[in-house]
Specification:
By secondary structure, the chain is mainly α. It contains four helices and no strands. The chain is 74% helix and 0% strand.
Length: 99
């Protein structure tokens, strides 16, 4: 793993080139994730990459709960809570109807 210190230098330069050449709408969390992936490879190894998929899918689900773009974290939390309460109340009503 002698290449990893060189990756730290190169990824910073690459992200700076992206910021310089591409529009700002291209610079989202996925581009910023490149910087942290190098740190993760250094700590855990290459095998850890397959563990990220379920987190990305869960983030997609949470982003679907957002209704307000100004305060997105609170909107996600509110949507998640209302989804959970509707889901569990629906399951409870199903149990009552079956009895």
């Amino acid at each position: 793993m002698a290449r990893i210190p060189r990756w730290h230098q190169e990824i910073g330069k690459i992200v700076c080139m992206f910021e310089k050449e591409l529009p700002s709408s291209f610079m989202d969390l996925q581009v910023h994730l490149l910087i942290h992936l190098v740190d993760e490879v250094e700590l855990v190894g290459v095998v850890s990459y397959h563990l990220m998929f379920f987190l990305e899918r869960y983030m997609k689900k949470l982003k679907g709960f957002a209704r307000q773009r100004e305060k997105i974290e609170g909107s996600m939390a509110e949507g998640y809570i209302s989804y959970g309460s509707f889901y569990y109340s629906n399951e409870y009503i199903k149990q009552i109807d079956n009895k």
